[in-house]
Design a protein that fits this description.
This protein has two helices and no strands. By secondary structure, the chain is mostly helical. 3% of the residues are buried.
Amino acid sequence: MKAYYKKKIIDLRARLEKEKEAKKRDNAYYAEKVREASGPSNKAYYRRCKVDHAAAHDRTIASIKRDIESAKESLKRCK
């Protein structure tokens, strides 16, 4: 059982890093779209999208962190 939780923690940490990279990529993408936008309504739309996507990434990151802590607690119980 210990090996299962150790592997799960490793996998979750890798997923956490991927999610952080995805957040950076999305932020850069939407920042570029805001700069390229032709009108104020388009700029506002892309700003809203940027904020919404960043919030979604933050929620996912928080969820993964909770899963890591849960797996650590389960690992402690196995010992």
